[in-house]
Amino acid sequence: MAVSCRVSRRPVPSRVRRSREPAAGKRRRHRRREDLLPPSEGPTPIVEPPPSSLLLLDARWKGLRAYAGLEASSHSDPNLKAGVPLTLHKSNPGGEQDYQAIDRHLRGFWPGAHFHDFSWTKGPIQQVLPRFRVRRITPASAQDAWVYVTKGAFEADGGQRLEFIIEAPAEDPIHVESLAMVTYRHLTGPPLDLGQTVAIGRPWITGSPQDHFMVDLPYPFGPKLEWAELPNGEPVRFLWLVPITASEAEYARTHGADALGDLLEQNQADVLDPQRRSVV
Predict the structure, then answer these.
(1) Which residues make Cβ contacts (< 8 Å) with residue 29, sequence separation at least 6?
(2) Which of 34, 37, 59, 214 is buried most, with the most CB atoms less than 10 Å from its CB?
């Protein structure tokens, strides 16, 4: 499938839902229930992944391999700053110190959390990014969400240094696969950025009508997670992959990601509900 790009020039409006630090007591974007985790202090091309990048669902359990079953220590790096400005790339990333900086950032945001790091051995991601991992963070209670976050997407050349986040209502290795696919497209196609949508070629959770992601700010977590910093001073931005339907993705292409965000808010959409109906 050919890569298609459409550009929306509509500027992002200044509004409450775009606030970096949601006011205390306000419902964070697209959520019906209370926040799942403790609170913390232009152009819009649309990228469709080709069929060759889709991984084998029926082999996903065989493709998943745990690299570490660790309990994160309480650690916060005082040198990491929230909201660091964008800069030009200063070097080719991917060294041990860079990965350690990402690890410290995640440990600092989730001190004491239980986590596992996974790789995905099916598909092309291991060939283009051998050190790529997905960290699965176990929820602190039954009411909390499972969190999956990439480690290594920041190695992509061009665009911002990014990592990607998925929130999920239950544990499922399909989210490791999804993050591997999205990272592969980010590395090998036009770099992803805020407001873009990605077709993933199958439901984000088995049986769900949502088969696309929208790249969004990490509203459930805030700027403390959103921004990390590599040892050379380059910022790395963590962005949230919001599951949406094909019709919602088309609406975002036509009207802009902000307009879709407005509809999700107006309908009080719970984006973690695998059976959520489309708002368009």
Answers:
(1) 17, 216, 219, 261, 264, 265
(2) 214
Rounded distance between C-alpha atoms, residue 225 and residue 203, angstroms? 27
Task: Answer whether 229's CB lies under 8 Å from 84's CB.
Answer: yes
- CA pair distance 120, 66, nearest whole angstrom: 9
With a pLDDT cut of 70, the percent of the chain lying above it is 66
Q: Spell out the long-range contacts of 267-270 with Cβ–Cβ below 8 A and sequence spacing 24 or more.
A: 268/32, 269/30, 269/32, 270/30, 270/31, 270/32, 270/33
Q: Which residues contact 55 (CB under 8 A, 6 or more apart)?
A: 63, 120, 122, 123, 177, 180, 181
pLDDT at 94: 66
Q: Give the tokens for residue 275.
A: 């059976």
CB 241 within 8 A of CB 165: yes
Query: Could you tell me the pLDDT band of residue 158, with boundaries at 50, 70 and 90?
Result: confident
Report, as an integer, the average pLDDT of 215-244: 95
Examine the pLDDT at 222 and tell me if it is beyond 80: yes
What φ, ψ does residue 244 adopt, rounded to 5°? -135, 165
Assign 170 to helix, strand or coil.
Answer: coil
Residue 208 buriedness (CB in 10 A; 0-12 / 13-18 / 19+):
middle
**What's the CA gap between 138 and 219, in Å, rounded?**
19
Q: Which comes out higher in pLDDT, residue 160 or 30?
A: 160
What is residue 76's predicted lDDT score, i.e. its pLDDT?
Answer: 28
Return mean pLDDT, the chain.
74
Cα(147)–Cα(170) distance, rounded to whole angstroms?
9
**How would you label 170-201 residue by residue, b for 16+ Cβ within 10 Å and e otherwise?**
eebbbbbbbbbbbbbbbbbbebbbbbbbbbbb
